[in-house]
Design a protein that fits this description.
This protein is an alpha/beta fold and 417 residues long. It folds into two domains: 184 residues, FAD/NAD(P)-binding domain (3-Layer(bba) Sandwich); 153 residues, D-Amino Acid Oxidase, subunit A, domain 2 (D-Amino Acid Oxidase, Chain A, domain 2). Helix content is 28%, strand content 26%. It is built from ten helices and 18 strands. The strands form three sheets. Strands 1, 2, 8, 9, 10, 11, 17 and 18 form an eight-stranded mixed β-sheet that branches. Strands 5-6-4-13-14-15-12-16 form an eight-stranded mixed β-sheet. The chain is globular and about 65 Å long. It starts with a helix and ends in a 16-residue tail after the last helix. Bound molecules: flavin-adenine dinucleotide.
């Protein structure tokens, strides 16, 4: 909802008692042109762009819990577009451009903070790999700077540069990378979509699919009744294989747990996002002063939103190698989310073999940064039945045809979330 100056003045004089909720908590109608399953960032963004860009407003977004209760509210908030492969770079750079205008577009403070993302390197071969990636980025018009150890020391003097095992030789910096406040991103999209007429329906789990005689999907069965739909889009992240199985689909996706951690508040110390190139650790500092950090996935299949101790130990080892003083910091809390790991580390935005059913999945542990472009491209697919120019590589059949986008250097490398 947008307020006029007069309405704002009225609120101020009326002691702010008249604010409406940011979005309508809708009750399901019998049917919609489009039903999007999953109220994470990707589902919310797709619903918003369907309404805003394509004028399709008869849309329901159904979420089994509360919006942002999945990975969209559990991630470590890093955004960047430092990918090197042709299939990925245009898409993630499109996402970065959308981030850069998001707050104006949504009229909502999403705390987009381009404080820089620095990937450290610790050997000559790693420097060469980062140089190649930086060059590929620059050829796509994306900012990238290869730094030597002295330049990194100026930015982050607190790092242990000369640790005996993995001394820091330098880093690849993307200055336009940074962080955005994940909850605010969800709420901003929800508010803007709702204002355009989208029904946001929480506490509404999809339990099955309606099919017609030809097998096409024509709606969803939910805990709150049957909802008919012209098209159904899945954006359920870690639950993708589980939900798709209800339509009889087997996908090249496994679900794994990823954990993250936040420390007590400290004085401002860490300038941007720093990733350790020789182990599983990356860190940034929130505006409340907490160190926000994480590492690798737990490494076993699971639909449980909680992790185990071996990875906590592994992440803390990485942290101690890079920043020994972190050993004296108290940890406030840790949590887990369920990752939809695709087999090449890259996402899928495509039709499924079932008419009427569309898929947005396979974001692994890097889908927060993709939220705006993922929503944009999924909305484009749902509205036009064609892939958006920046997402043509994200086909489901690439695992059969061999056109995989195996970018372990950025998409699937544990220390580069
Ligand atoms: C600890 C952690 C750290 C991360 N850090 C980063 C990072 O720094 N940068 C980055 O780019 N990415 C990061 N990620 C990954 C990123 O969060 C995800 O890739 C992205 O959020 C996935 O898309 P989404 O937001 O739509 O998913 P989600 O928010 O998980 O949305 C899916 C929704 O579907 C709902 N759902 C599931 N089943 C059903 C059903 N049957 N019916 C109705 N609704 C259903 C779920 O409740 C959920 O709300 C991280 C993830 C985690 C867990």
């Amino acid at each position: 909802m947008r307020y006029s100056i007069v309405q704002l003045a009225r609120q101020a004089l009326g002691r702010h008692r008249g604010w409406a909720p940011a979005w309508r908590d809708a009750t399901p109608k019998d049917g919609y042109d489009v039903v999007i399953v999953g109220g994470g960032g990707h589902g919310l963004a797709a619903a918003y762009y369907l309404a805003k860009v394509h004028g399709i407003t008869n849309v329901a977004l159904v979420e089994r819990g509360w919006i942002g209760g999945g990975n969209a509210g559990r991630n470590t908030t890093i955004i960047r577009s430092n990918y090197g492969l042709p299939g990925n770079e245009p898409f993630y750079e499109w996402s970065m451009k959308l981030w850069e205008g998001l707050e104006q577009d949504l009229n909502y403070n999403a705390m987009v903070s381009q404080r820089g993302v620095l990937n450290l390197y610790h050997s000559d071969p790693q420097r060469d790999a980062y140089a190649r990636r930086g060059n590929a980025m620059r050829m796509h018009g994306v900012d990238a700077t290869l730094l030597d150890a002295d330049a990194v020391r100026k930015m982050a003097p607190f790092l242990d540069f000369d640790n005996a095992r993995f001394p820091i030789d330098g880093g690849l910096l993307q200055e336009r990378g940074g962080t955005a406040r994940h909850d605010a991103v969800n709420w901003g999209y929800a508010r803007a979509a709702s204002a355009l007429g989208v029904d946001i329906i929480q506490n509404c789990e999809v339990t099955g699919f309606l099919r017609d005689a030809s097998g096409a999907v024509t709606g969803v069965e939910t805990g709150r009744g049957t909802i008919r739909a012209g098209k159904v889009g899945l954006a359920v992240a870690g639950m993708t294989s589980h939900v798709a199985a209800k339509a009889g689909l087997k996908l090249p996706i496994e679900s794994h747990v990823l954990q993250a951690f936040v420390s007590e508040g400290l004085k401002p110390l860490i300038p941007g996002v720093i990733t350790y190139g020789a182990g599983h650790f990356y860190v940034s500092q929130s505006d409340k002063g907490g160190l926000v950090f994480g590492g690798d996935i737990d490494g076993y299949n699971s639909y449980a939103q909680r992790g185990n101790l071996p990875v906590v130990e592994d992440v803390c080892e990485g942290a101690m190698a890079l920043m020994p003083m972190i050993g004296r910091v108290r940890m406030l809390r840790s949590w887990g989310g369920i990752m939809d790991m695709s087999m090449d580390g890259s996402p899928i935005i495509d039709h499924t073999p079932i008419p009427g059913l569309y898929l947005n999945a396979g974001w692994c542990y890097g889908g927060f940064k993709a939220t705006p472009a993922s929503g944009w491209c999924f909305a484009h697919l749902l509205a036009t039945d064609t892939a958006h120019d920046t997402a043509t590589a994200y086909r489901l059949d690439r695992f059969r045809t061999g056109h995989v986008i195996d970018e372990k250097g950025a998409g699937a490398q544990p220390n580069l979330h």
